[in-house]
């Protein structure tokens, strides 16, 4: 079986209140990755702004954009100029009072190949996303691009094996997780390490159990809590790419801004799935209880 290499780029960076500076940093990262040969570039969750969900503030709905809109126009033009696929993550204003956390995929001709609206919405201290985002209504549907069929999921989705499985069952050739996740700076270091390792293990497991590569892109840096009620969030970086057996193909810094370009052999999923046929051996005739919230 002849290998088929896809070069993918990951843009990991910190953010500030300056939207223009954030976007300039993102664009430069995309250009750097493309200059290194990347044909697919994945961005972190909500890359235009600070992670604004630490508090509930109606003024922050002003950050939302329509799709299409100014940012999608700019990223589409960039994808066309560079001849690459870009996976972005935006705060979508669908209608007045209706907003989503939405990933938009641009094809090499600059068109919007598709979008995915985040399905699992957290509501935890420092991550008050239910205040801002309506759960997605597009399902777990891969997006066809000129470089293959990709399954895009967003942050909290990465903890749910059902989401990864449904994307793989629909033909996703790789899974991409734009992410914004970090520590409470007051947590003890041992607890921080446990959280980070659980995050990595969960996503590597999706690669293993579905026989597909996984790309996860996180941000870095400390972002203060505007309310002052907590110490904010220290985003832990660690963007990575795992192969179809969960093996690390690349693993980024915990603290530094970074552009990584990684080779993915797209034929390895075929080889791995022939040896580890999880899809063949699934007992769907005994999985009905998965449709229940809990088995009492």
TrEMBL record:
One of its GO terms (molecular function) is hydrolase activity. SUPFAM superfamilies: Carbon-nitrogen hydrolase. Signal peptide: none annotated. Pfam families: CN_hydrolase. Residues 6-266 form the CN hydrolase domain. InterPro entries: Aliph_Amidase/BUP, C-N_Hydrolase, C-N_Hydrolase_sf. Gene3D superfamilies: Carbon-nitrogen hydrolase. This is Carbon-nitrogen hydrolase. It comes from Pseudoalteromonas fenneropenaei.
């Amino acid at each position: 079986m002849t290998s088929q290499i896809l070069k993918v780029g990951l843009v990991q960076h910190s953010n500030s209140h300056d939207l223009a500076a954030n976007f300039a940093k993102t664009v430069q990262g995309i250009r750097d990755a493309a200059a290194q040969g990347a044909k697919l570039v994945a961005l972190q969750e909500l890359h235009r702004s600070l992670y604004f969900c630490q508090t509930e503030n109606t003024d922050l709905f002003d950050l939302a954009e329509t799709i299409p809109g100014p940012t999608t126009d700019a990223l589409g033009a960039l994808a066309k100029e560079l001849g690459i696929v870009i996976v972005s993550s935006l705060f979508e204003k669908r209608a007045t009072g209706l907003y989503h956390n939405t990933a938009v995929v641009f094809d090499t001709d600059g068109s919007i190949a598709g979008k995915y609206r985040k399905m699992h919405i957290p509501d935890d201290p420092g991550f008050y996303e239910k205040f801002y985002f309506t759960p997605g209504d597009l399902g777990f549907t891969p997006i066809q691009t000129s470089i293959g069929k990709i399954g895009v999921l967003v942050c909290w989705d990465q903890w749910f094996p059902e989401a990864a499985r449904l994307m793989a069952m629909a033909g996703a050739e790789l899974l991409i997780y734009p992410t914004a996740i970090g520590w409470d700076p007051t947590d003890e270091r041992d607890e921080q390490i446990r959280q980070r390792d659980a995050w990595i293990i969960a996503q590597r497991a999706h690669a293993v159990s579905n026989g597909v590569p996984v790309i996860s892109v996180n941000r870095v840096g400390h972002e203060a809590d505007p309310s002052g009620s907590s110490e904010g969030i220290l985003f832990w970086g660690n963007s990575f790419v795992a192969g179809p057996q969960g093996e690390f193909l690349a693993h980024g810094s915990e603290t530094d801004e970074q552009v990584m370009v990684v080779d993915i052999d797209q034929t390895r999923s075929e080889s791995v799935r022939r040896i580890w046929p999880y899809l063949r051996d699934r007992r769907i005739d005994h999985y009905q209880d998965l449709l229940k919230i809990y088995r009492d």
